[in-house]
Amino acid sequence: MPHVERGMVVGLFGGSFNPAHEGHRLVAEIALKQLRLDQLWWMVTPGNPLKSRSILLPLGERIRLSEELTRNHRIRVTAFEERLKTGFTAQTIEYVLSRNPGVHFVWIMGADSLKTFHRWQRWRHIAASLPIAVIDRPGATLSFLSSPAARALSHSRIDESDAGILARRTPPRWTFIHGPRSSLSSTAIRQGTPGN
């Protein structure tokens, strides 16, 4: 894991990044600014339990492409989950929190992930463990906000104008952040139709 100090505010941005693209970088940059992060950990996962591993680029290649894309010194590309052998986000979060007392973490996801968040293993535990920032993505914002997880957590949503203090709020707390959006998608890139 990257080095952090007590009192720091750190965003956890996990994904397969298969491949990483400008849309991912845009989400990271919005999160850094709006959440007032000291660091953002760009966590390249070995695999996604909800997706087929057969289409994954090798982990080393995904790390290399992510590092080439990220130019901000506050973004730390890491793949420590590979060594942990954790298969699920909830396990990774428990590990990170247990080894970094006094650090304020916030989970970062694109709005497209919010749509399927209720299918993640122990998703309610994740929401109760650390605040969550959902960054808008193209493709029906209202449907993302009416997803099962968004409805279940509606009582703990804070206004995006308070995003800068989200990481210091007691979970469950989450916010939805609007801003510039990229229509790029890893799936479309793999299929040769990257979009705009």
Written overview of the protein:
The chain has about 200 residues and is an alpha/beta fold. It is built from nine helices and six strands, in the order E-H-E-H-E-H-H-E-H-H-E-H-H-E-H. It has helices spanning about 20-35, 60-70, 80-85, 90-100, 110-115, 125-130, 140-145, 150, 185-190, and strands at about 10-15, 40-45, 75-80, 105-110, 130-135, 175. The chain has a six-stranded parallel sheet with strand order 3-2-1-4-5-6. Helix 1 links the parallel strand 1 (about 10-15) and strand 2. Helix 4 (about 90-100) packs parallel to helix 6 (about 125-130). The chain is globular.
Sheet with most strands: strand arrangement = 3-2-1-4-5-6
The number of strands is: 6
Roughly what is the average pLDDT, rounded to an integer? 88
Number of helices: 9
Low-confidence stretches: none
Q: What oligomeric state is this?
A: single chain
Q: Looking at the structure, what is the overall shape?
A: globular
What distance lies between the first and last C-alpha atoms, to the nearest angstrom?
A: 34 Å
> For the report, how would you describe the main beta sheet?
6 strands, parallel
Order of helices and strands: EHEHEHHEHHEHHEH
